[in-house]
Design brief:
Number of strands: 34
Shape: globular
Distance between the termini: 23 Å
Structural class: mainly beta
Oligomer: single chain
Strand content: 35-45%
Strand order of the largest sheet: 1-30-29-28
């Protein structure tokens, strides 16, 4: 019974954790509009296994899962729980190099590893099993290095590896797609970097050669899309594809962002209205992620994290209306927004960073001067916060107002321990 209660309250526990940091932490960012944002950094000193974080996701119980180069971690708002390879133990993780994470429709955590395929963690029984046993097939070699995993709307899977692309149907049949040098309608390369399922049901795959591959189900083959630099012989590598609309894809490249029209097949650079110092032109962009407010996070290679807002210009063409540099001098591997609007940023050798949702901010609360010893939620919409010297605070989660109780209010002491 206790386990069930804890699971039901995990999302609340995480929100308390972020509430705590909003009261006590302040961080500087490169853009003035983010000075009131709270950015929390996790390094190995705070319990992170490795500064190179590859993937982040959130399970149905609210836990944050983090994939690193030396193991898997689950974060509950207070501490990390680590999962490692243990020689001779079949029900543990079988490889410590985690490349991708996915929560499937049944709530299982799919862990894509480098060299040992996919492992499935079942939170109900707290153990790992081989993905092939779940799929009732052994068609995916166990020693395969996984790059990306996608569960389609019909429940089937696409799995990208360094040796080709696998597709599983609902009948458990697995198809393998690989590059054929003599066939221009085959995959452009066997190393799959990204899988994108579009709103209209089409699939897009980005390969390590920098080519976008559009899957054509009617002929069971691919259309290759490359970006040529001014008609030159050398193509601009495509790193990532973001679906802006059914007709427009945004292509992240080593030379900024390009617009791709899915109907005409034409592409053009995504320009900025103002050529300011934060312009994304000539910057290597490696990922785009939608914000809850409709804006877009832009992950770059060593130029940091940006926030952009897109709009239609007078020529009826999409362009960048505003650019904000949020973090500088980092390589962003993944960006994930949790259920509370907090933004988790996986970096390459700079650990894990979290931008706290400003809606949880309580900048005017006097509690920021006192150490907090305990936090509890009542049966109503109030949060009780006990401090070491500042008395007891009653915080209204709906109105974001509070009342402070001290010895002058009748408390026997201003030191609240539980």
């Amino acid at each position: 019974m206790l386990k069930i209660i804890l699971k039901q309250n995990m999302r609340y526990v995480l929100s308390l954790f972020f509430f705590y940091f909003v009261l006590f932490c302040q961080s500087q960012t490169t853009d003035s509009s983010y000075k009131n944002k709270i950015i929390k950094s996790f390094s190995t000193e705070q319990g992170l296994l490795h500064p190179d974080v590859s993937s982040i996701t959130q399970d149905k119980d609210g836990y944050i899962w983090i994939g690193t180069e030396i193991g898997l971690q689950r974060y509950d708002g207070y501490r990390f729980q680590n999962y490692f390879y243990n020689l001779g133990t079949k029900r543990n993780l079988q490889n410590n190099i985690v490349k991708d994470l996915l929560v499937d429709e049944n709530g299982n955590i799919l862990v894509g590893t480098w060299g040992d395929g996919i492992h499935t963690y079942n939170p109900e029984i707290n153990n790992f099993s081989d993905f092939n046993s779940i799929m009732q097939t052994d068609a995916i070699p166990i020693n395969n290095s996984i790059q990306c995993i996608n569960q389609n709307r019909d429940g089937s899977f696409w799995v990208g590896t360094h040796k080709g692309l696998y597709n599983s149907s609902q009948t458990k049949q697995l198809d393998l797609y690989i590059n054929n040098p003599k066939d221009s309608t085959s995959l452009s390369d066997n190393w799959i970097k990204q899988i994108l399922e579009c709103r209209n049901g089409n699939y897009v795959f980005v390969c390590d050669d920098g080519v976008m591959n559009l899957f054509r189900p009617e002929s069971n083959d691919f259309k290759r899309v490359s970006i040529n630099n001014g008609g030159g012989q050398v193509a601009i590598p495509i790193n990532f594809v973001y679906e802006y609309s059914e007709q427009t894809l945004l292509l992240c490249t080593s030379m900024g962002i390009y617009l791709y029209d899915t109907l005409s097949g034409n592409y053009s650079p995504l320009n900025s209205k103002s050529n300011n110092e934060n312009s994304l032109q000539n910057i290597e962009v490696i990922g785009l992620y939608k914000k809850m407010n409709g804006k877009i996070w832009v992950a770059t290679y060593y130029d940091g994290l940006f926030e952009i807002e897109l709009g239609i210009n007078t020529g009826n063409k999409l362009d960048i209306e505003s650019v904000k540099n949020v973090m500088s001098d980092i390589v962003v591997n993944d960006v994930f927004t949790d259920d509370h609007g907090n933004v988790w940023i996986a970096t390459n050798n700079n650990g894990l960073k979290v931008i706290i949702n400003k809606e949880l901010s309580v900048a005017s609360m006097a509690i920021e001067t006192e150490p907090v010893y305990c936090i509890a939620k009542g049966i109503d919409e109030f949060l009780w916060i006990g401090t070491m010297g500042g008395g007891l605070f009653k915080y209204n989660l709906q109105t974001h107002s509070y009342k402070n109780y001290t010895v002058s209010s009748g408390l026997s002491s201003n030191y609240i321990r539980s």
